[in-house]
User: Fold this.
Amino acid sequence: MDEKRKIYLEAKSRVLKALGHPTRLLIAEELGRGERCVCEFVEMAGVDYSTISRHLGVMKQAGLVEDEKRGQKVFYRLRVPCVLNFMECVEKVIRSGAEERLRMLERG
Assistant:
């Protein structure tokens, strides 16, 4: 594999890893509904500020989110809302797998 392709695949991997945690998936889905303050994620996820900040840092490093400080609060938004299209695809995979398991159970 050439170096350019390797770098590109590593970047893709960072994006997928950034979505590879339930809290970060929650954040992405909520940001799909609009901009949010860090404090809202703390309440939604039931974790402390430092944990949310780490998750948002991973997502920001991968290029998924951007932030804006307003006074004492920091607000985040999705940089690329199309990432939610990928989430729809993931949901289809899950449903498809569930349907297949049901068919197998029915066949007994």
Observations:
- DSSP finds five helices and three strands in the chain.
- The mean pLDDT is 91.
- The radius of gyration is 17 Å.
- The chain has one domain: 3-79.
